[in-house]
C-alpha cells in the first residue's frame, strides 16, 4: 500500500509540472525552481542563448506572473540544436552536466562540477570555483586551462585538444586522460596523482612545462615526439627518464642536483645547460645522446662511468671544477675536437677520452698527477699533448693508438709509464724523458719512429730505470727480427739517443753502477762499443738485445749475463758484434746465456787461464756459429792443446769457434755441455799428450793412468766434420745429443752405438729383443726412442743410469727387470711403453719428473723396502690399482686409481700431499708404530675409505692404530702376520713359499712374491 501512494504522488507531480518559454529558452517547473529543457514539439535552439538567474512564467494573461530561480539544465536540453553557437549561463548552477551540445562556446557560472559529453565547444573557461571537471567527447576543444581549484579532471575523446594548462595549487590533482587525447603542449603547476605515470596516455606530447612546485619528473616512457622539457623545481632526473627519447632536443632544469643512470641514454637531446647546483651525473646518463657541446659546472662532484660515451655529435667540452670521473666517461665521442680542463682538476677517469678520434690537442691540468689507463687511447687525430705540471704516472695504454702524436716532452715529476702507454704512436719522432723516470712498462713504445730520444738525467740514472718485460699480445713490429719483444724501451726505435746534450755511441758503465738493468739499450743501433768495467757484476735481461755493436770489452771478474743480454738474431749476425775483448781478470760468466756473439774473440791471458774461466750458462757462446776466431794474446788459435793438468773443459768453453783439432789429456774427467758445439771445422779430438808443449809439461802428471770422461749434453753438437774421437774408449757417461749431427756418428754402423761405458743410441730399426752388454753403466737419452718393435730388453748388472726418453714410445715392451745397481730413471724413460707392472729396487734414488712411466697401462707397482727416500712423483703411475710402498718419499696419490695399498716398515711418516680422495678397498701397514700423518682434520682419505676399507696392521698393534690420529677413523681394522719385500730376484727352480705384496702368505691370485728354498725370490702374476 505504501508503494502505491508514492507512485500516485509522483504521477500527480508530473501532471502538475509544466513547461514554459522565457526569452527563447524553454524551462520546466521544478520544486526548487526552473530547469532549462529541450524545446517542445521537436524544436531546437540556435544562435546565442542566455540563461539568467531568474525567469518569469505567466501561463494566462489574466493570471499573475510567477518568478522562478534557474536551478539546473537538463542533460539533453541542447540535443540536436545544431545552430547553437554560444551559451551564456548566468544562473548560479553548482553542478552542470550536458550531453550533445553543439554550441561553440559555453560561458559558465561559478559552479562546482562540470560534465560535458559530446560537446562541440572550441573554447571553455573553467571557473575558479570548479572542483570536478569531466570532458568526454569534446572534439572541437583545442585549448584548456584548468584552475587550481579542480581536484578531479577527466578527459576523453577530446580529439583536437593540443594545449593543456594545469594551474598551480597546493592540493593534489587526480587526473585521468584517455589514450586518444592528442595533447602536444602540457603545463603542470601542481602535484598530480599518487603514482608517476599519469602522462602515460599522452603519446603525442611535444612540450612539457613543469611548475616550480613540481620537484619530480613524471614517467615519460614512450614519448616519441617529446622535444622540450622545462622545470624550475626539478632537482632529480630519475633513472632512464628520457632513455631512448630520440625526439628530445632541449631541456631546462635550473635547479637540478642529480642526474641518475641512463637518464638521457640514446636520446636526441642536442643541448642542455647544466646548472651550478648539479652535483652528480650517473652512469651512461647521456650515453649515445645527440649533444653538440657540454659544460660541466664547478659544483659537479662525480660523473659515472660511460656517462657521455658514444656522443658522436659532441664537439666541445668544458670542465670547470675538480670533478671526479669514473671510467669511459667520454669514450668514442668521435667528433670531440675541443676539450678545456681546469688547472685544479686532480684526476681523470680510466678510458675517459678513449676513441675521441677528432681530438687534436690536449692541455693537461697543473694539479693532475696520474694519467689513468687508456685515458686517450685511439685518439688518432691527437698531435700535441701538453704536460703542465705534476704528472707522476702515465698508466697502461694511456696514449696507445694516438697515431698522429708527433713529439712529446714528459715532465720532471714523472716516475712511471705503464704497459703499451704509447703503443702504435707511429708519428712520434721526438721524445724527451725526465731524470725522475723509474719504471717503463712492457710494450710502452711499440711502433714509435723516433729520430731523436733525449734523457734529461745522467747515464747512471738511465741505467737505473726498470724497463719491464711483456709478451706483446697483438701485432707489433719486432726489432731486427729477433723474435723477442723489444718495445718497452723507446731507445729501440731511436735513430739517435742523447743523454743531456751528448750523443751516445760509445758506452762505458760508470763507477758505482754494478749492474746494467734489463732492456736498458735494447735495439739501439746507434751504439757502437760497450765496455763492462771490473766493478760491474751483472748485465740484465735483454740489456743490449739487437744492438749492432762493433766491439764489446769485458773487464769484469765475475759477470752474470741474463737471458738475451747481448742477443742478436741469426740473420743479422754478420752485421752484429765484430769483436769481443775479454780481460784475463774474467773468472766466471753465469746466467741464462746470450753473451756477446762475435766474429773474433780476443783474450789477453793464456790458454790455461782461458780454460779456467767457468761458463755457467744455459745457452749461447761468444763465437758466431762455427766462425768465431779465438785469439790468445793476439795469436789466432786453430788447434787447442788442453794442458795435462786440466780435469775439466767447462760448459760453452769453445762453442762456435773455428777450431780444427783438439788434444785432450789423460787427466781430463769432464767435457762440459756445449763445450765444442757448433765447431763446424773441428775434425779431430785426440786423446793423448803427443803435442803437449814444454810450457804444459811442467804441470804434466807423473802417472799415465787414464781417467774416465763424462761428456755433457750437446758437447760436440753439429760438428759436421768431426770424424776422429780417439777418447771414445774411456767415456764414462754421455749427455743428451752429445754427438748429434757429427760425421763420426753418421759413419757408425747400424746397431748399438757404444762409447766407452755408455750406450749412446741404437741406429736403424731394432729387432724384437736387445741385450745390453755388461759394463755399460748408462743408457743415454733417446737411445731406443720410438723403437716400437722392441719387446724385450735385458739390462746388465753394471747399469746405473737410464736417461731421459731412453725407451719412450717402445710400445712392445710389457715388462722389465731392473738391475740391482740402478740408481736413476730419467724423465719419460719408459713413457708410452706397454708396461703393466713395475718393481723399483731400493738402490734407485730418483725417478725424474712426472713422465718416467707416464701413459703406460701399469696396474701394479712395488717400491722395495729401503730406508732412503725415493725422489719421484706418483702421478706417473696413475693407472696402477695395487701398490707396495716400502720406502719413504713424498708420494701424492691423489687422482690415482689405487684399490690396494701397502706401506712398508720403513714408512714412518705420511706427508701432507699423500691424499687418496678415491675409495681404497684394502690398506696394509707393516710398521708396528702407526705412521705419523701430517695434521688432524686434513682429508687424507675419502669417507668411503674410512667406512669400508679393510685396514690390516701388524699383530699386537691393533689398539695403537685404533687410537692413532687419522687411522682411528677406519672402522674395519684387522691384525695379521705381515712382512716386507726386499731383494726381489728371479729364479726358476727349487721349492718355494708365496706371499702377497702385503707381506702375508698369498691365498688368492694376483701379484705374488715367491721365496725359494735357496733364498732367491721372484715376482710374478698368479692367475
UniProtKB/TrEMBL annotation:
Coiled coil (UniProt feature): none
InterPro entries noted in UniProt: LRR_5, LRR_dom_sf, Surface_bspA-like
Protein name, UniProt field: Leucine-rich repeat domain-containing protein
Native source species: Segatella copri
Amino acid at each position: 500500500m505504501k508503494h502505491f501512494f508514492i507512485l500516485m504522488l509522483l504521477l500527480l507531480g508530473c501532471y502538475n509540472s509544466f513547461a514554459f518559454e522565457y526569452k527563447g529558452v524553454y524551462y520546466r517547473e521544478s520544486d526548487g525552481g526552473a530547469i532549462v529543457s529541450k524545446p517542445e514539439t521537436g524544436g531546437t535552439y540556435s544562435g546565442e542563448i542566455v540563461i539568467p538567474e531568474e525567469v518569469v512564467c505567466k501561463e494566462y494573461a489574466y493570471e499573475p506572473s510567477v518568478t522562478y530561480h534557474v536551478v539546473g539544465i537538463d542533460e539533453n536540453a541542447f540535443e540536436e540544436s545544431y545552430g547553437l553557437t554560444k551559451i551564456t549561463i548566468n544562473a548560479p548552477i553548482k553542478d552542470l552536466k550536458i550531453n550533445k551540445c553543439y554550441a561553440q562556446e559555453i560561458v559558465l557560472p561559478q559552479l562546482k562540477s562540470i560534465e560535458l559529453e559530446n560537446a562541440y565547444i572550441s573554447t571553455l573557461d573553467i571557473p575558479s570555483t570548479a572542483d570536478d571537471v569531466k570532458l568526454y567527447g569534446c572534439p572541437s576543444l583545442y585549448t584548456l586551462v584548468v584552475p587550481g581549484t579542480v581536484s578531479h579532471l577527466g578527459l576523453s575523446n577530446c580529439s583536437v585538444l593540443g594545449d593543456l594548462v594545469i594551474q598551480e595549487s597546493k592540493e593534489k590533482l587526480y587526473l585521468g586522460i584517455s589514450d586518444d587525447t592528442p595533447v602536444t603542449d602540457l603545463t603542470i603547476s601542481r602535484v598530480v596523482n599518487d603514482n608517476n605515470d599519469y602522462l602515460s596516455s599522452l603519446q603525442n606530447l611535444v612540450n612539457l612545462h613543469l611548475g616550480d612546485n613540481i620537484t619530480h619528473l613524471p614517467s615519460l616512457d614512450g614519448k616519441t615526439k617529446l622535444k622540450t622539457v622545462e622545470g624550475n623545481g626539478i632537482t632529480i632526473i630519475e633513472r632512464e627518464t628520457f632513455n631512448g627519447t630520440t625526439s628530445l632536443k632541449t631541456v631546462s632544469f635550473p635547479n637540478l642536483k642529480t642526474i641518475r643512470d641512463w637518464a638521457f641514454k640514446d636520446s636526441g637531446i642536442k643541448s642542455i645547460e647544466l646548472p651550478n647546483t648539479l652535483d652528480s651525473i650517473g652512469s651512461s646518463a647521456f650515453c649515445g645522446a645527440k649533444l653538440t657541446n657540454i659544460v660541466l659546472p664547478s659544483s659537479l662532484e662525480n660523473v659515472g662511468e660511460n656517462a657521455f660515451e658514444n656522443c658522436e655529435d659532441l664537439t666541445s667540452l668544458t670542465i670547470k671544477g675538480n670533478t671526479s670521473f669514473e671510467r669511459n666517461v667520454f669514450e668514442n665521442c668521435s667528433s670531440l675536437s675541443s676539450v678545456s680542463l681546469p688547472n685544479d682538476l686532480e684526476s681523470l677517469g680510466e678510458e675517459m677520452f678513449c676513441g675521441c678520434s677528432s681530438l687534436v690537442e690536449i692541455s693537461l691540468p697543473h694539479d693532475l698527477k696520474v694519467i689513468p689507463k687508456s685515458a686517450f687511447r685511439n685518439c688518432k687525430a691527437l698531435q700535441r699533448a701538453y704536460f703542465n705540471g705534476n704528472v707522476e704516472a702515465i698508466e697502461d695504454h694511456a696514449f696507445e693508438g694516438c697515431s698522429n702524436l708527433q713529439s712529446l716532452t714528459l715532465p720532471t715529476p714523472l716516475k712511471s709509464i705503464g704497459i703499451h702507454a704509447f703503443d702504435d704512436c707511429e708519428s712520434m719522432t721526438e721524445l724527451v724523458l725526465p731524470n725522475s723516470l723509474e719504471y717503463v712498462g712492457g710494450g710502452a713504445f711499440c711502433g714509435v719512429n723516433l729520430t731523436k730520444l733525449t734523457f734529461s738525467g745522467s747515464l747512471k740514472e738511465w741505467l737505473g730505470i726498470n724497463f719491464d718485460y711483456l709478451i706483446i699480445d697483438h701485432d707489433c713490429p719486432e726489432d731486427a727480427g729477433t723474435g723477442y719483444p723489444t718495445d718497452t724501451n723507446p731507445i729501440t726505435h731511436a735513430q739517435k739517443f742523447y743523454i743531456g746534450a751528448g750523443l751516445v755511441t760509445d758506452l762505458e758503465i760508470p763507477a758505482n753502477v754494478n749492474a746494467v738493468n734489463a732492456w736498458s739499450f735494447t735495439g739501439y743501433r746507434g751504439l757502437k762499443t760497450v765496455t763492462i768495467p771490473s766493478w760491474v757484476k751483472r748485465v740484465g735481461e735483454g740489456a743490449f738485445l739487437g744492438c749492432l755493436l762493433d766491439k764489446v770489452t769485458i773487464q769484469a771478474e765475475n759477470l752474470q749475463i741474463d737471458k738475451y743480454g747481448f742477443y742478436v738474431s741469426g740473420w743479422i749476425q754478420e752485421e752484429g758484434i765484430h769483436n769481443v775483448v775479454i780481460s784475463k781478470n774474467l773468472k766466471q760468466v753465469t746466467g741464462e746465456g746470450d753473451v756477446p756473439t762475435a766474429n773474433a774473440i780476443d783474450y789477453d791471458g793464456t790458454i790455461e787461464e782461458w780454460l779456467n774461466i767457468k761458463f755457467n750458462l744455459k745457452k749461447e757462446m761468444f763465437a758466431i756459429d762455427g766462425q768465431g776466431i779465438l785469439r790468445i794474446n793476439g795469436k789466432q788459435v786453430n788447434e787447442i792443446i788442453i794442458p795435462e793438468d786440466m780435469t775439466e773443459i767447462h760448459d760453452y768453453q769453445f762453442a762456435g769457434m773455428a777450431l780444427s783439432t783438439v788434444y785432450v789429456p789423460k787427466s781430463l774427467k769432464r767435457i762440459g755441455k756445449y763445450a765444442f758445439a757448433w765447431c763446424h771445422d773441428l775434425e779431430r779430438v785426440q786423446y793423448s799428450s803427443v803435442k803437449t808443449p814444454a810450457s804444459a809439461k811442467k804441470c804434466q802428471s807423473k802417472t799415465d793412468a787414464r781417467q774416465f770422461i763424462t761428456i755433457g749434453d750437446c758437447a760436440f753438437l753439429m760438428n759436421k766434420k768431426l770424424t776422429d774421437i780417439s777418447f771414445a774408449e774411456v767415456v764414462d757417461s754421455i749427455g743428451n745429443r752429445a754427438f748429434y749431427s757429427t760425421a763420426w756418428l753418421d759413419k757408425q754402423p747400424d746397431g748399438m752405438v757404444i762409447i766407452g761405458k755408455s750406450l749412446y743410441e741404437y741406429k736403424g730399426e731394432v729387432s724384437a729383443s736387445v741385450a745390453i752388454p755388461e759394463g755399460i753403466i748408462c743408457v743415454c737419452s733417446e737411445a731406443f726412442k720410438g723403437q716400437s718393435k722392441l719387446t724385450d730388453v735385458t739390462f746388465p748388472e753394471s747399469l746405473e743410469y737410464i736417461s731421459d726418453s731412453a725407451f719412450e714410445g717402445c710400445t712392445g715392451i710389457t715388462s722389465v727387470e731392473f738391475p740391482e745397481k740402478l740408481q736413476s730413471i730419467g724423465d719419460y724413460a719408459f713413457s708410452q711403453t706397454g708396461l703393466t707392472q713395475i718393481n723399483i729396487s731400493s738402490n734407485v734414488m730418483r725417478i725424474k719428473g712426472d713422465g718416467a712411466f707416464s701413459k703406460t697401462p701399469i696396474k701394479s707397482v712395488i717400491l722395495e723396502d729401503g730406508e732412503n727416500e725415493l725422489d719421484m712423483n706418483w702421478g706417473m703411475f696413475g693407472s696402477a690399482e695395487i701398490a707396495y710402498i716400502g720406502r719413504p718419499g713424498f708420494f701424492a696419490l691423489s687422482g690415482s686409481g689405487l684399490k690396494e695399498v701397502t706401506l712398508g716398515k720403513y714408512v714412518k711418516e705420511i706427508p701432507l700431499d699423500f691424499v687418496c680422495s678415491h675409495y681404497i678397498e684394502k690398506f696394509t701397514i707393516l710398521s708396528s708404530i702407526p705412521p705419523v700423518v701430517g695434521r688432524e682434520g686434513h682429508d687424507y682419505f675419502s669417507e668411503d675409505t674410512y667406512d669400508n676399507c679393510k685396514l690390516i696392521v701388524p699383530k699386537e698393534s691393533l689398539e695403537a692404530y685404533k687410537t692413532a690420529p687419522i687411522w682411528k677413523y677406519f672402522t674395519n681394522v684387522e691384525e695379521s702376520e705381515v712382512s716386507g719385500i726386499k731383494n726381489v730376484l728371479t729364479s726358476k727352480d727349487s721349492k718355494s713359499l708365496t706371499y702377497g705384496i702385503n707381506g702375508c702368505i698369498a691365498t688368492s691370485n694376483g701379484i705374488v712374491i715367491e721365496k725359494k728354498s735357496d733364498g732367491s725370490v721372484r715376482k710374478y702374476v698368479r692367475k
